[in-house]
Amino acid sequence: MSSSWPHLSAACHGCERCELATTRHNVVVGRGNPQASVLLIGEAPGQQEDEQGEPFVGRAGQLLEKLLGEAGLDSRRDLYIANVIKCRPPQNRKPTRTEIERCLPWLHQQLELLDPPLVVLAGATALQAVLGIKGGISKLRGQWIEQQGRAYLPVFHPSYLLRFGSRAPGAPQELTLADMQDVRRRLDRKDWPQ
Ligand code: URA
After folding, report:
1. Domain parsing of the chain, residue ranges
2. What is the third-level CATH fold of 5-188?
3. Using CA atoms, how far apart are residues 120 and 132, in angstroms rounded to an integer?
4. 42 pocket-lining for ligand 1 (C-beta < 6 Å)
5. With contact defined as beta carbons under 8 Å apart, do 153 and 172 qualify?
6. Are 176 and 65 in contact (CB under 8 A)?
7. Running DSSP on this structure, what letter comes out for residue 21?
8. How far apart are the two ends of the chain, measured CA to CA in Å?
9. Which of 23, 83, 88, 148 has its CA 20 to 30 A from that of 59?
10. What CA–CA distance (Å, rounded) separates 165 from 182?
11. What spacing in Å lies between the alpha carbon of 13 and ligand 1's midpoint?
C-alpha cells in the first residue's frame, strides 16, 4: 500500500501487472489537485494521454474541460482526475476484465489517499469497476449513489458526448452540464454524505 502520492506514482510507473506495460509510452496516473474533494474517474488513456502522460488531454478531455468550466469547476483546483486503467489499451479498445482487475488496486489507493466525499464516474466502465453496477450509464446518470461515506455521480463519458454536438435541452451535453453544475452545488455547500 502506498502511503503518499509520490510513492504511488513511482509504483504505478514501474507497474508490469498486465500486458499493457509492453505497449504503453507513459503510465497515466492522474492530474489535478491531490487535495480536491471531487475525484473524476474515466476509463483509460487514449493516444494523446499515452503520449503526454496525463488523463483527458485529447478531444474528449477538451470537451470535459469546457463543460467543467461552464459549471464553474476548475480541474486544477476543484478536482483530481484519474482513470480505471492507467495504460493505454492498443487502438483504444475496451480494457479487458483482467486488465481492470490488475489495475484497480491503483485506483483504490488513489481513493484512499484523496478520500474524496464526491466521486464522478464518467462512463460505464468506471461505474462497473468502482460500484459493480452493470448495464450502462443512461438509466443512472445524474443520480447520486451514496455508499460508505461517499457520494458517486454517474455521468456520460466525454467520448460519448463528442458524438452528439447538440446543446439542446435534454441532449447528452446539456444533461452532463447539469450534472457538473450539481457537483458544483454540492461542493459549494459542502454537501457531503453522512
Ligand atoms: N478517455 C478516458 O476515459 N480517459 C482519458 O484519460 C481520455 C479519454
Report:
1. 5-188
2. Uracil-DNA Glycosylase, subunit E (3.40.470)
3. 15
4. yes
5. no
6. no
7. G
8. 27
9. 23
10. 21
11. 18
